[in-house]
Amino acid sequence: MRVVRCTLILLIAPLLSTVCPGQLPSSGCDRTETRLEDCTSFTQFETGANEPPSSRTNPFDPSAGFASSESTTDRDSASGVVSAPGEKKGLDWGRALTESFTFLVIEQAYVVHTDFNWVVVENGIPFNHYWRDYNQSLTSWYHAGWSAGENPLYNYVGHPIQGAMTGFIELQNDPKYEKLEFSNTKIYWRSRLKAMLWNAVYSTQWSMGPLSEMTVEKYGTAARPPWNANGTFPCNTNTCYSGVGKVNIVMTPVGGLGWMLTEDILDKKIAEWVEGRTENRFLINTVRCSLNPIRGGANILHGRRPWYRVSRDGQVLTLVNQPQHAVASEKTQKTQVPSWGDMFFGYSHIGASNCEVPVSGAGKPCDPLSAKASVLNGWNLAVEKKYFRYFGTVFELGGQYGGVSQGTYMVGIRGGSSIGRFRPFAQVLFGAVHDRAPGSSPVESALTFAEDLGLGVDFHLTRLMSWRTHVDELKTGDNTFERYNVRVASGLAVRF
């Protein structure tokens, strides 16, 4: 169902917002047991340009948002760029595009999960006959009317939420506008219109771009037949829908702007009113998260806490490049926790295969090879390279053995944040699974597209090592069947 995909936009924000007042940062220098003077990346406090330090914000208090990591200088730390106080610069295109692409991967992950059979409808391969199908989809869109045949809730609520998220992504990467609060001024309206333009480009790509619903889910193609107004197949009425229409091109940017304005007003009129009457950080952060859930999600993509406000949390810590810190002590170098990424190696177990008929979801017997690809044991190797504070790129290989010899080859993203000695995370991976049954005659073999959705946790054992356990749902198949396997892996992760 496409409503699930739209509500995925809120997956990060509400999930972490509910626990945000007690959440600790993810980097090593943010951990409570690490002394500030032991962190080579922190050198001095400075106050945001044109913003007085907040009398209620204590930068050493984790519950106050630990504004150090939420400064705009965070995004420059990896490259060693230092933002001077009051420095003026334009939109950070690289960061804004990377955040938007991360959001796109998260959205498409659920698209693939819910419409897996359409993704692999032709020969079990995604993007098969790409240009032919894309041309058919664009032609269907051109001749389509206003509606795409969806529930109005998706078009008039879900897509505006998507627009608001991408609009906030643009704003938080533009130093000229990121501190602006709701006001009836030219610069405020100019900033929001610029954000609407950004989300209009994103929403156009989402609806009809090269990595869109058209190309991934094959809406409007001959391979995906139209349906009736009630959602049934095949279409046997005068009104048929193919999943493409003009509504989302208009409603996403316009509705997104309206959603952003609503959150701006609530933040200005209610959240600030609460802040002026209490110093309880738990209450302040909870109100901020509750009234601005979409802004909170954008904050997380930016490496900030969901409740952070650059306009009011004025004190920040400047980040500098490690080689430039000439006075770093040997003790400091030994105590700082690595945060570039990690390598994992451990044992993995795959449970029984569960097979379903595409579209209907009815259970069906697994084919012989799928049935053999059950209750397998083996190994799992994964390397994660962080590119944002909360997000990293993951490359994974695996080998499982039993009824078949199975190899997994996956790549994707992982998002997580440390809470004391624990780091819970979620990941989405795409790739291929190769099953081979050497004992059969002839040898049975199958290479299928695969998606992996998983949750896990790291328990920090030492400065460099953690014990990791994660549980995933591995999904494979084609247009004739879908196969689900639960996979459990546990082993040692080494940070670097």
Mean pLDDT: 80
**What strand order characterises the main sheet?**
3-5-6-7-8-9-10-11
Query: Per DSSP, what share of the residues sits in E-state strands of 2 or more residues?
Result: 15-25%
Q: Count every helix, treating DSSP H or I runs of 4 or more residues as helices.
A: 13
**Based on the structure, what is the oligomeric state of the protein chains?**
single chain
Q: Assign an overall shape.
A: flat
Biggest sheet descriptor: 8 strands, antiparallel, barrel
**Are there runs of 5+ residues with pLDDT below 50, and where?**
1-85, 315-335
SSE-based structural type: alpha+beta
Helix fraction, binned, reads: 25-40%
- The radius of gyration is 24 Å
Count of all domains: 2
| Ends distance | 40 Å
Number of E-type strands: 11
String of helices and strands: HHEHHHHHHHHHEHEEHEEEEEEE
